Amino acid sequence: MATTWKVIAQNQTTNLTPQGVFEESMEVSYQTIPEGVVGRIVVPKRLYTADYVRDAIEADVLHIKAVSEL
Fold first, then answer.
1. In what order do the strands lie in the sheet with 5-16?
2. How far is residue 7 from each of residues 18, 26, 43, 63, 70, measured CA to CA in Å?
3. pTM
4. I need a surface site. Which of 26, 47, 52, 67 has the fewest CB within 10 A?
């Protein structure tokens, strides 16, 4: 687990892509530490790995923390 966030939920879903194709995906919810902001990313199942999810959440958390400091 990262020190600035933690995964709090994962759910499988189906999303409609911009190309009009249904794609199996995973919704991953996380919470920032210590702020407690809850965020969510949606990852296509074909890209769903721990490394990919970690990188995507890290990018989101950087933005959340930067805005929190405004």
1. 5-16, 22-32, 38-44
2. 27, 13, 14, 17, 25
3. 0.88
4. 67
